[in-house]
């Protein structure tokens, strides 16, 4: 089985984000691997360990991806492709999906695993759109993947009415929830080995396409302004005897906030 | 006049509140409204769909639609959107909506936006949505004539005075997706209050420690008729089901009152509940980040606080 995972480099959401004049202040930001993509990488490596598979990751966008790709190598990914094209900086989900379509078509993969969304945009569209463009099945928000045979997998999806057990014919796209696994911490040996591995770098021309062809010159939507989120203010905080505080807080909830 | 198609949010045969919220917003924007309802044995929902504010009801009612399958679901939405010539297609905040919206957008070759909290139609289509775990808002300009969007939980309010008119259009049953076949649905425990609908949500975190802690706080939740949610820690610990997880990646809730017990307040959890009207937090650690967003905070052990809180609440609510 050939598995393709996608890995996005995103702003670290644990740090403070400042907005000035409609834009995010770049100073002080740090970039990390998207947490859900780390779950996707772990899922691919587990399938490789249990069922045998060749695992490839692809990362899109300009800039240095060496650190995140090496991290995934250390976790057990076999091959890494960086589609290094500065034109992708403003891309929307549809453009990303069309670039991934080109990557898929060069590799004849059986299974594509992506994170269910990226931490920077929280959009959750790319994997699903990719499947539509490829006319292959897709199951999103997956918490378990089992291999049935060479041509089929069985996945568990968290749906509205409960956990859906879905049998999927390959090739297919699966987008994973963080509930699927706990990504491993790479061992030192893996980290050392990862440093020696090659990263294949290409660009849109190398994939036989252009920014225009993937819809980059006709973006379906674009962010025109960033604003500060309305932040909540810390309210009243009480310490002391539990019984007294319970009386006080219930009174406030009932008579001040009027929500009881 | 803009035309807005709302995808009815139906769960186990029941029409969810988001449908009326989205239709109310559509009416407030001066739009012509339609709803598309997809499922099995759902024709009885028509009167509710009308009173929720729809002027046309597209109904895809077929035994094959009983269990959710994103492909056929999207087919029905696209069919309704084309027949109605919708400018905007809105999904409520549900897993079905999140799975179907990008498919609809790809098939119609139009823009898609998820988790929108506002929309402006004065000059083309412009939407507002949170990003980066709710830390910023972004204004997004839509460059296509039409937009598919998933509306974030709690973004719009239902207006009781809104109503629609009955004009039922039946849709053909879509082809089943033979490449992704749902074999089984492990149903969520029935009789439990849906987190998305609950007026009050009571959630637990690591501070609840074990099953005894879970049961204790669950008692308070049932006293209040509240939804019972969880932070990721208690899900990973095996104490709470996946579908109870409140947060950026789980359920996003915006109840009137959110009560957090033993939850420290990781950024991912806050992103799922900081739209709540009033937040009460109980935590042993006075420095827990949850207190930065809580309207009322009690620094203390939930095992001591919850029993007395239950007593007091019973007195107040009678």
Structure characterization notes:
The complex is a heterodimer of chains A (260) and B (318). Chain A is of the alpha/beta class. Helix content of chain A is 29%, strand content 30%. Chain A has a single domain, classed as Rossmann fold. In chain A, the strands form three sheets. In chain A, strands 11-10-9-12-8-1-6-7-13 form a nine-stranded mixed β-sheet, sandwiched between helices. In chain A, helix 2 crosses helix 5 and helix 3 crosses helix 4. The longest helix of chain A is centred in the N-terminal third of the chain and has 17 residues. Chain B has 318 residues and is of the alpha/beta class. Chain B has two domains: 168 residues, Rossmann fold (3-Layer(aba) Sandwich), CATH 3.40.50.620; 118 residues, TPP-binding domain (Rossmann fold), CATH 3.40.50.1220. Chain B is built from eight helices and 18 strands. In chain B, strands 7-11-6-1-4-5-12 form a seven-stranded parallel β-sheet, sandwiched between helices. In chain B, helix 3 crosses helix 4 and helix 5 packs parallel to helix 8. Chain B starts with a strand and ends with a helix. Chains A and B meet through helix 3, helix 4, strand 9, strand 11 and strand 14 of A and helix 4, strand 7, strand 9, strand 10 and strand 13 of B. Strand 11 of chain A pairs antiparallel with strand 13 of chain B.
């Amino acid at each position: 089985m050939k598995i393709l995972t996608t890995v996005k480099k995103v702003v670290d959401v644990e740090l403070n984000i400042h907005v000035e004049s409609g834009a995010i202040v770049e100073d002080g930001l740090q970039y990390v691997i998207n947490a859900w993509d780390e779950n996707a990488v772990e899922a691919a490596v587990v399938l490789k360990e249990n069922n045998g598979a060749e695992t490839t990751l692809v990362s899109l966008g300009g800039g240095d991806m060496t650190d995140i790709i090496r991290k995934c190598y250390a976790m057990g990914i076999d091959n890494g492709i960086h589609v290094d094209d500065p034109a992708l900086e403003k891309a929307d989900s549809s453009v990303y999906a069309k670039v991934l379509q080109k990557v898929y078509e060069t590799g004849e993969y059986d299974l594509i695993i992506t994170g269910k969304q990226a931490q920077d945009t929280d959009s959750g569209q790319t994997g699903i759109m990719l499947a539509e463009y490829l006319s292959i099945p897709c199951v999103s928000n997956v918490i378990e993947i089992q291999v049935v045979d060479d041509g089929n997998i069985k996945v568990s999806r968290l749906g509205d009415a409960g956990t859906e057990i879905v049998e999927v014919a390959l090739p297919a796209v699966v987008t994973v929830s963080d509930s699927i696994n706990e990504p491993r911490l790479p061992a030192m040996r893996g980290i050392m080995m990862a440093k020696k591995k090659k990263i294949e770098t290409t660009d849109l021309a190398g994939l036989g396409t252009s920014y225009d062809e993937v819809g980059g010159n006709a973006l379906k939507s674009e962010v025109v302004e960033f604003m500060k989120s309305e932040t909540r203010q810390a309210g009243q905080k009480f310490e002391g005897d539990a019984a007294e505080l319970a009386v006080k807080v219930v009174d406030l909830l009932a008579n001040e906030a009027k929500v009881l | 006049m803009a035309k807005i198609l709302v995808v009815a949010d139906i769960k186990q045969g029941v029409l969810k509140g988001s449908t009326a919220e989205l239709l109310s917003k559509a009416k407030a924007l001066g739009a012509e409204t339609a709803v598309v309802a997809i499922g099995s044995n759902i024709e009885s929902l028509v009167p509710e769909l009308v009173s929720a504010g729809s002027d046309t009801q597209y109904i895809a009612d077929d035994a094959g639609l009983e269990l959710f399958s994103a492909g056929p679901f999207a087919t029905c939405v696209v069919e309704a959107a084309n027949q109605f010539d919708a400018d905007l297609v809105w999904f409520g905040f549900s897993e079905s909506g999140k799975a179907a919206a990008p498919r609809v957008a790809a098939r119609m070759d139009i823009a898609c936006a998820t988790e929108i909290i506002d929309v402006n139609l004065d000059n083309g289509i412009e939407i507002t949505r949170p990003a980066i775990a709710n830390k910023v808002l972004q204004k997004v300009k839509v460059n296509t004539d039409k937009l598919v969007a998933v509306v974030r939980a709690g973004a719009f309010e239902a207006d009781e005075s809104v109503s629609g008119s009955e004009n039922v259009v039946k849709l053909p049953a879509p082809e089943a997706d033979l490449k992704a076949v749902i074999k089984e649905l492990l149903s969520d425990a029935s009789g439990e209050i849906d987190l998305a609908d609950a007026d009050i949500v009571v959630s637990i975190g690591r501070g609840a420690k074990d099953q005894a802690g879970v049961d204790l706080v669950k008692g308070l939740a049932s006293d209040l008729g509240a939804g019972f949610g969880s932070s990721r820690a208690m899900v990973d610990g095996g104490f709470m089901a996946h579908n109870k997880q409140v947060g950026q990646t789980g359920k996003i809730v915006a109840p009137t009152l959110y009560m957090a017990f033993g939850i420290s307040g990781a950024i991912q959890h806050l992103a799922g509940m900081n739209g709540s009207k009033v937040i009460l937090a109980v935590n042993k650690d006075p420095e827990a980040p949850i207190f930065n967003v809580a309207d009322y905070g009690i620094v203390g052990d939930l095992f001591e606080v919850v029993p007395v809180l239950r007593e007091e609440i019973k007195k107040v609510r009678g």
